[in-house]
Design brief:
CATH architecture: Alpha-Beta Barrel
Order of helices and strands: EHEHEHEHEHHEHEHEHHHH
CATH class: Alpha Beta
Number of strands: 8
Number of helices: 12
Shape: globular
Radius of gyration: 18 Å
Number of domains: 1
Helix content: 40-55%
Structural class: alpha/beta
Distance between the termini: 45 Å
Strand order of the largest sheet: 1-2-3-4-5-6-7-8
CATH topology: TIM Barrel
Length: 301
């Protein structure tokens, strides 16, 4: 089947007002700016979008706003799942109702199901919707690794079309790609692993750094696909210090600071996240000063 999502997927933040309310106007502005700076697909209300801190009503409003802003040509994937299977199914149906293009199926945190539970959880969600689904393995957030065997079992579910792999375990990721059925793709879930994953046969990246350097990441991906590995490595090395700075504190804390600092007023994170520390701000400014920032800040009123 044709891959329904792009090679450069941005895990989009959720802009907030100074008072901590969701800023829908800036959400639309940011979504359009991301597309203009290289994003091919958007994940809305994922980890970077502070999903655990949003109400269901806010989540749906953000989805609708992002989709309306980018139009039919840019797929929008809903961060619609959590550790409650029934609630996840309800949200998945809501994402389809409001016109989104896919679902991100994130490994549940806190209740820590066995691998058999992961298979049943994700299969139940996938079978309850017509939308194509991207699995998401992120052990650093969930304290649970989805094994290659589990991923491969889920790859047989027709509507599950790929995985965002953030385990940083290239051996595990390679095992998935070696044995996955045709049409099942792997996106790196870490900006720092993009080249390594693509050289194993990965499709692309679900990126945080693309908020700031999306065109450069697109150039890196294109170089790798063209066999220009030296050029890809040069871009990767140039961006690596920025990528490291973006995760010096919990994502999206440094990213929100960075966007505000370059003139894109996305507001603060919402509690329990807090604004970037002084040390994080200093490091982020130092890295931003070394690079060209691709995203264009909105015109001031």
């Amino acid at each position: 089947m044709v891959v329904p999502f792009g090679r450069l997927v941005t895990a989009m933040i959720t802009p907030m007002t100074a008072a901590g309310d969701v800023d829908l106007e800036m959400t639309a502005e940011l979504a359009r700016a991301l597309v203009a700076s290289g994003t091919e697909t958007i994940v809305s209300t994922g980890t970077t979008g502070e999903a655990p801190a949003l109400s269901e009503a806010e989540t749906v409003q953000v989805w609708e706003t992002v989709k309306e802003a980018v139009g039919r040509g840019i797929p929008v994937i809903a961060g619609a799942t959590n550790n409650n299977t029934r609630q996840s199914i309800a949200l998945a149906k809501e994402a389809a109702r409001v016109g989104l293009d896919g679902l991100l199926l994130t490994v549940p945190a806190y209740n820590k199901p066995p691998q058999a539970g992961l298979i049943k959880h994700f299969t139940a969600i996938a079978e309850a919707t017509r939308l194509p689904c991207m699995l998401y393995n992120v052990p650093s957030r969930t304290s649970l690794n989805m094994t290659a065997e589990t991923t491969l079992a889920l790859a047989e579910v027709p509507s599950i079309v790929g995985i965002k792999e953030a385990s940083a375990d290239l051996k595990q990721i390679g095992a998935v790609m070696e044995r996955a059925p045709a049409g099942f793709e792997v996106w790196s879930g870490n900006d720092s692993d993009t080249i390594g994953v693509m050289r194993l046969g990965g499709y692309g990246v679900v990126s945080v750094a693309s908020h700031l350097v999306g065109k450069q990441i697109r150039e890196m991906i294109a170089a790798q696909l063209a066999g220009e590995t030296k050029r890809a490595d040069e871009i990767d090395a140039r961006l690596a210090p920025l990528v490291a700075a973006l995760f010096v504190e919990s994502n999206p804390i440094p990213l929100k600071f960075a966007l505000n600092d370059v003139g894109f007023p996305v507001g603060p994170p919402r509690l329990p996240l807090v604004p970037a520390s002084g040390a994080a701000q200093q490091r982020m400014r130092a890295e931003l000063a070394k690079l060209t920032v691709d995203i264009k800040a909105p015109a001031k009123a």
